[in-house]
Structure formats: structure tokens, C-alpha cells
Amino acid sequence: MFVDTVVVLAGGEVARISGAGSATMVFPGDPVEVAPVGFVSAVDRGQLLAGVLAGVRLGAWDRRIIAWLAGWDAETVLTVASLISRARAAGLAAGASDPPRSAAA
């Protein structure tokens, strides 16, 4: 039997991490003002990071660092995952309205 893990984020938002090997995460859309509280297993922390990085090409060192990050406490991993998620959303929003930039810019 698998039990969902519930984590309370800043502002009372709730993240639900489903068991059975699938991680579903709701990240705060705003900056995280206080540490999220709750328990997230190391396996789920790794899946959360993999989820927010879905579609990003990863090298061997990237995967090693993701595994290392997953070993950190839930508060740190949830905050890093939230940062990645919000940065991707901001990049998508900016990409929709900004002209492409060169690498030298």
C-alpha cells in the first residue's frame, strides 16, 4: 500500500507527492518565504527533481549532482525544485514576448 506524502508550503499551499513511483508536485508560484514543512522520502525527492527537469538534456555530472541534491533535506529539495519550476515558467513567459538573444548578449 502506498500513502501520499503531503507537504505544506509557504502561504499554506500544499504539495502532494503520490506513492507508487510517481511524484506529483504543486509548487508555489510565488517566492518561498519560509521553509516548507513535511516529510518527503529520498526517492520522492529525486523524482521531484527529475520531474521539474523533464525535457532538459542532462549529462553524467548533471545526474550525479541531482542525486546529490536529492540526499539533502526535504526543505532544501522542495525549495530548489520550486526555484527551477518558477525559473522555467519565467523563461517561457519571457520567451513568448522577448526577441531571441544571442549567447554573447
Strand residues, percent: 5-15%
Q: So how many helices?
A: 3
Biggest sheet record: 2 strands, antiparallel
The tally of domains stands at 1
Sheet with the most strands: spatial strand order: 1-2
What is the H/E order? EEHHH
- Radius of gyration using CA atoms only: 15 Å
Task: Flag low-confidence runs.
Answer: 1-6, 17-24
Mean pLDDT: 74
The number of E-state strands comes to: 2
Helical proportion, percent range: 40-55%
Structural class, by secondary structure, is mainly alpha
Short description:
A hairpin with a 5-residue loop joins strand 1 (5-8) and strand 2. With 105 residues, this protein is mostly helical.
Write the layout of secondary structure elements.
Blueprint: E1 5-8, E2 14-17, H1 42-52, H2 60-70, H3 74-97
Antiparallel strand pairs: 1-2
Helix pairs in contact: 1-2, 1-3
Fold and architecture overview:
The protein is built from three helices and two strands; from the N terminus they run ββααα. Residues 1-6 and 17-24 have low confidence and may be disordered. It has helices at 42-52, 60-70, 74-97, and strands at residues 5-8, 14-17. With 105 residues, it is mostly helical. It has one domain (5-90). The chain has a two-stranded antiparallel sheet with strand order 1-2. It starts with a strand and ends in an 8-residue tail after the last helix. The chain is flat.
Features:
disordered N terminus, 105 residues, mainly alpha, single chain, two-stranded antiparallel ribbon, 44% helix
